[in-house]
Design brief:
Radius of gyration: 20 Å
Distance between the termini: 53 Å
Order of helices and strands: HEEEHEHEHHHHEEEEHHHH
Strand content: 5-15%
Strand order of the largest sheet: 1-2-3-5-4
Number of strands: 9
Oligomer: single chain
């Protein structure tokens, strides 16, 4: 296909669906391009020459291409759009797989920049970098302040026993991709299970909240939170723990996984934690547990990628080095628990 007709996006069928479901929205032929950077679901920018939208769909060849993920993503942004939480305006959910070969949804295109590396963030300069990262924390506070029942999300997840269930889930995920010795990972898993904190009141949890999953505007504020595929109702401090580990240097040069923490002006984790605590009013005394849990979760995810690499099931650069990071993440997790 040409650049204007990327794989997985039949623009003629998409236009026909939009004209039928949203008459008057589209004013001409559509062009589209794949937006790079997504973890699993595919994201496209689409335009009729006047207006722009974004289309989200499951990966190509996704055997279990049910409407579940697309419906959940569309549901959460639809619920949050009327609130103070910055999300794109939802346009359409289509569960008819005849259109694009899988369920999909359409939302407005939001102007902004996703900062994925310290080098990109450094181009803003120290003051603007600091403002952007602090805005990331303040926006997380806004998200966690939303009362789920008030926006129709009371049944969006099962908060009871959330942390225990998450630990068991990632433990099973680890077992499914275990083909080498990983010193310390079972110790980390067991230690987390022995010392489960008491969760605060449940909130809408993003599940992968970090700088490169938001769009930053020219005013250094968050214009939209993206990639809601892991969102649920649960313990809000799991989002904070993940934000903390992405706000500290990994100490691994040329790593295929990077944080933005090395950018000049980037606030340190302690300041981010204190700002979140002040804004949310939540007790963050157990933040070391949540941070260690985030290290464990990412170690399991990376080990799964490494496992697929050893089976020849990954395509692209950097996969040969993913496995080297797993022991680093395990060590960070164990150290965090000991220091906490």
């Amino acid at each position: 296909m040409s650049a204007d007709h990327p794989p997985g996006l039949d623009l003629d069928r998409l236009r026909a669906t939009l004209e039928r479901e949203r008459p008057g929205l589209v004013s001409g032929p559509l062009t589209g391009r794949l937006i790079e950077g997504g973890r699993s679901n595919l994201t496209y920018a689409v335009s009729d020459g006047t207006s722009k939208w974004v289309v989200r769909r499951p990966p190509l060849g996704h055997v279990l291409a049910t409407a579940h993920d697309m419906r959940r993503e569309h549901r959460v942004i639809s619920a949050l759009h009327p609130t103070q939480v910055p999300v794109p305006r939802p346009v359409l959910l289509c569960e008819d797989e005849e259109v694009l070969g899988a369920p999909f949804y359409v939302m407005e295109f939001v102007e902004g920049t996703p900062y994925r590396t310290a080098g990109q963030l450094a181009a803003l300069g120290p003051e603007r970098t600091r403002n952007a990262v602090l805005s990331l924390v303040d926006t997380l506070v806004e998200l966690h302040a939303v009362e789920p029942a008030a926006v129709g999300l009371a049944d969006f997840g099962r908060p009871e026993g959330f942390l225990d269930r998450q630990l068991r889930r990632w433990g099973k995920q680890l077992d499914a991709s275990r083909n080498r010795d990983l010193p310390g990972i079972d110790e980390l898993h067991a230690a987390l299970g022995r010392d489960l904190p008491r969760s605060p009141a449940p909130a809408v949890v993003h599940g992968d909240y970090r700088l490169d999953n938001v769009l930053i505007g020219d005013d250094d504020r968050i214009k939209a939170i993206l990639d809601w595929e892991m969102s649920t109702l649960g313990d809000p401090l799991t989002d904070l723990g993940l934000l903390v580990i992405y706000s500290r240097p990994l100490g691994t040069p040329d790593s295929p996984v990077s944080t933005t923490a090395e950018a000049p002006g980037h606030p340190d984790p302690r300041e981010l934690i204190e700002r979140y605590a002040a804004g949310s009013g939540r007790d963050v005394s157990a933040v070391s547990w949540y941070t260690a849990y985030a290290w464990f979760k990412l170690a399991v995810i990376l080990e799964g990628i490494h496992y697929r690499y050893t089976l020849g099931q990954t395509v692209g650069r950097g996969f040969d080095r993913i496995g080297d990071l797993v022991p680093v993440f395990i060590d960070h997790g164990l150290t965090t628990l000991q220091e906490g």
